[in-house]
Amino acid sequence: MQPSLLIHIFLNGFCNKSLSQLVSPEKVSPRELEKLEYLAGPALYTSHAWIWKECIRLLALGGFKIGIGRGDLNALYKQQENWMTKLGFTVEMN
Q: Which residue has the higher pLDDT, 33 or 9?
């Protein structure tokens, strides 16, 4: 199966919705992810508000950077671990 088709498959884990129904493919394009990172600045990875609002796009951004090997991979993995831990705390606070 082609990877581009995977986002259109209905999945039980998403209440029989496709990933593209939950997240607009345009909002997770490399251009939009880089724009998000630029506009939010460093707060994107430290602000509970940003992390809570943009957790799916943060996951996509981290996966994109790691996937293309841009930057220090160990630092990227650590950055992802840190914001995901903050997301866990944010869930507990809400």
A: 33
